[in-house]
Design a protein that fits this description.
The protein is about 25% helix and about 30% strand. About 35% of the residues are buried. It is an alpha/beta fold. It has one domain: Rossmann fold. It contains six helices and ten strands, in the order H-H-E-E-H-E-H-E-E-E-H-E-H-E-E-E. The protein is globular, with a radius of gyration of 16 Å. Strands 3, 4, 5, 6, 7, 8, 9 and 10 form an eight-stranded mixed β-sheet that branches. A two-stranded antiparallel sheet has the order 1-2. Bound molecules: S-adenosylmethionine. The site of S-adenosylmethionine has 19 residues, from strand 4.
């Protein structure tokens, strides 16, 4: 769709037109979502070392994620109290930067932080605090997936420099790369790290 038309149609309507039913689960079939659900999530589902995970940020199209990640103990947080209503059973209304007030060190094997940096935690200082908070609750060797839009107004300032203080870049076997860039006009990408 040409960018000029896109602006005329409300985002909620555009997204609903991308809904697909797959394996009894409604999903948002944008390329970035398909990559998360069909490539990244299955990688972790198949691993014995991934038993407990934290998903940061809830949205209507992530309601089914406790089922997507079935087999992994699924926890979520969102800073917005309104998200409690659509979140799964193990949910806290909490800012990413305050994780340590609820979760002890080494709690999680995996943190997925998709669409949060650039959507609330935007400055280098805020991103650094968010990354530190992830490192504090991940076990050594635990995985961090950062999903973000590499575009003006959303871009993370110096992700590598900020993450490099506590994390190493890691190749996700399913992707055969330490990051994935999706074919979206908003340049959504995923970066993979493990906690040092
Ligand atoms: C674009 S949605 C992303 C939802 C989901 N993580 C995904 O995969 O698309 C952004 C969500 O992040 C939440 N958020 C923003 N800042 C946050 C923070 N500091 N801590 C936790 N959640 C935050 C917002 O309330 C919003 O629900």
């Amino acid at each position: 769709m040409p960018p000029s038309w896109r602006r005329l149609i409300p985002r909620s309507v555009r997204l609903r037109s991308r809904l697909r039913l797959k394996n009894g689960r409604w999903r948002l079939a944008t390329p970035d979502r398909v990559m998360l659900e069909d490539v990244i999530a299955p990688e972790f589902l198949g691993r014995r070392d991934i038993r407990r995970m934290l998903d940061v940020g809830v949205a209507w199209y992530t309601r089914t994620y406790p089922r997507l990640y079935r087999g992994i103990e699924y926890h979520s947080i969102d800073v917005d109290p309104a998200m409690q209503r659509i979140a799964g059973r193990r949910h806290h209304t909490l800012s990413l930067t305050d994780l340590a007030t609820v979760y002890p060190a080494d709690t999680f094997d995996l943190v997925v932080c998709n669409g949060v940096f650039g959507w609330g935690l935007d400055t280098a200082e805020q991103v650094a605090r968010g990354l530190d908070a992830c490192a504090d609750v991940l076990r050594p060797g635990g995985w961090l997936v950062v999903g973000w839009n590499d575009m003006e107004g959303r871009r993370i300032p110096d992700l590598d420099g900020l993450a490099g203080r506590r994390f190493d870049r890691a190749v996700l076997p399913a992707a055969r790369a330490d990051h994935l860039v999706t074919p979206t006009h908003y340049a959504h990408r995923y970066d993979f790290f493990t906690r040092r």
